[in-house]
Amino acid sequence: AGLPPRTPTRGFAPGPAKGDGLWNAILLSFEFLGPTRTYRRPGRPLEFKRQKNRIPKAVAFGGSRAEPWSGSGAEAPPFPLPNCRPSPVCYPTLMLDILFYPLIAIGRIGLGFLTIAVFVILFAASEFAFRLGRRTADRQEPTESMRSSVGFITGGMLGLFAFLLGISFSLSAARYDLRRQSVLDEANAIGTAWLRAGMVGGQEGADIQRILRDYTTLRIAFVEAATDPALERQIIDRTNTMQTGIWTLAVRVTERAPTAISAIFIASINDMFDLATTARRNFGHGVPPYVLRLVFVVALMSVGAMGYQFGINRNRQPIVSALLLITWTMTMVLVVDIDAPRAGSVRVDPSPLIWTLESWGPPK
User: Fold this and answer.
1) Are 216 and 353 in contact (CB under 8 A)?
2) pLDDT digits over 182-236, tens only?
3) Contacts for 326-330: CB closer than 8 Å, 24+ residues apart
4) Among 100-104, 267-271, 326-330, 343-347, which is the least confidently predicted range?
5) Interior CA angle at 335 toward 332 and 340, to 5°?
6) 46 — phi, psi (to 5°)?
7) What would you report as the CA-atom Rg of the chain, rounded to the nearest whole angstrom?
8) How far apart are CA 130 and CA 133, in angstroms?
């Protein structure tokens, strides 16, 4: 059924697969960037575990099947890791994750620091390309045909970047609207469930209305929660516990009085639970990381092409270049800000849930 398990050893476990050396080197670089995770590879997946003495440790498992890394809370990896076999396609993907990790770490500190970092990187790429173009022009005087060709290529790259930036902005704005709509829909569903709980009457109806007050407060905390996986996990666990209690009381209502009113009450409870799951999904998913990375890489290349064109023309245009870089930087960071549901300045307003809670009046 597979290879027998081997004794854990310090370092990397040997393997017969071709290219293990490069594969292990790439995985070693990931070990210093994040916590425990599992990578699939042919034959034996390697699982890395962070040790107290910060010495990486590789454990070879028997068999040819392994579950991918799955974790939550504080154990979540700093960025999505590809689940692929060692190949010419997977190596660049892994290395690209390593190159983008500093930007991700800076973005976690604050979007202001991310704005400065992106601007500095773009400015450095423009300056390097400008010096390269000027050096090329000093060695050999560029012809009109060469200038025209470089201008044509630069214009095409700038147009492609504008197109990708528009797509990424549209994707992030669409996800932001989904989060806003999910909060509104959930608030309406909670209000409907509270009203129908009053219709069924009895002790169960009063208990459900009392629990719904705490449930609504918890959902407000879910929307307002910052980027804290442990806190988010705690809110989700409490939500699941309260949903279980509400459902238990709802079942008692149907057993006590199986009427049409109890049927529509059960339907409203179902809708409320479903919309809580929808909100969790909308708050947990954003623009795919590879889209944002592609936008940044194309921006870097476009700035480089523009700087190279200025270099061969020996015309720097510092003011216009700075304004363009500032505009691009602010737009890209705005896309990241809109796409981050729990960080930055563009956040979803929980007012619909607050209004629902206020409409019930003081607790009795």
Assistant:
1) yes
2) 999 999 999 999 999 888 878 888 888 999 999 999 999 999 887 778 888 899 9
3) 326/119, 328/122, 328/161, 328/165, 328/299, 328/303, 329/115, 329/118, 329/119, 329/122, 330/115
4) 100-104
5) 130
6) -105, 130
7) 27
8) 5
Q: Report d(CA 251, CA 253) in Å as an integer.
A: 5
C-alpha distances (whole Å) from 298 to each of 122, 163, 165, 289, 303 are 11, 11, 10, 14, 8
**Cα 129 to Cα 134: distance, rounded to the nearest angstrom:** 9
Calpha distance 53→31 (Å, rounded): 13
Task: Answer yes or no: are the C-beta atoms of 309 and 133 closer than 8 Å.
Answer: yes
Spatial separation of the C-alpha atoms in residues 320 and 308, rounded to whole Å:
15
Length of the chain: 364
Instruction: Please report, in angstroms and rounded to a whole number, the separation of the first and last CA atoms in the chain.
Output: 64
Confidence tier at 103 by pLDDT (50, 70, 90)? confident
Give the 3-state DSSP-derived string for 329-343, with helices as H, strands as E and coil as C: HHHHHHHHHHHCCCC
Residue with tokens 């909670």: 190
In one-letter notation, the amino acid at residue 61 is: F
Q: For tokens 């719904």, name the residue.
A: 212
